[in-house]
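Notes from hallway chat w/ T.B., transcribed later so I don't forget. T.B. wanted the structure written out for a chain they're using in a teaching module, and asked if we could keep both sequence and structure tokens in one place. Agreed to drop them here.
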Amino acid sequence: MNRRRRLLGILLATALGSLLAPCPLLAQTTPSERELQIYAGLHAAAANGDVAEIETLIAAGEKPDLQDSNSRTPLHVAAFRRQYAAAQALLRLGANPNAMDAQHYDIVTIAAVQNDLEMLKIALAGGGSARNVTSQYDGTALIASAHLGHVEVVRTLIEAKAPLDHVNNLGWTALIEAVVLGNGDKNHIDVVEALVKAGADVDIKDRQGNTALAYAKQRGYADMVKIIEPASGRKT
């Protein structure tokens, strides 16, 4: 019976991995070409990176956190569009760095998913929190970036005190996602190493009763096993 449960756990994790691998990208809804064409005011200025127009509009009374039909603020638009100077101007002039769009994404998580280290640093410097619970999975920017193997983003979020052991509504931590939803490549190995060195709890079990170490062994990720195994049991 236990063997059968373990097998079912492996099959479920594999199925979920293939289903969810693109989800952080697909769940984030970037402004469409149609939206970019009809944007006006601060949304248009943010999309175009027009800092002078941003300053003029806010000085004239336009609210920096005005939302579009998808609850994106101009700051969200700047983050999606990689408009760094516009994002800095909006933050300087009072934009909320932790505002959420309709998919429950903030600019920290948007930058993390896009592997946009420069925008991430701007967001964090401007008051964005690495501790926000974001996305339809009740996850964090750290979980999303660990899933995608964005090594420098993961390291930056760790430095920003992102919660290492947050469990999303799939029952997974950043460490488990790096194993289950990664492919065992160098980037995901480096993510696992960064998380373990930072003190992530390697003994947390998911809903199938599996730890990151168990998944790494099941998948034959020997390099990950070498990193995780010595840390097992250290928090007990």
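Follow-up for T.B.: The chain has a mean pLDDT of 91. Might be a good example for the class.
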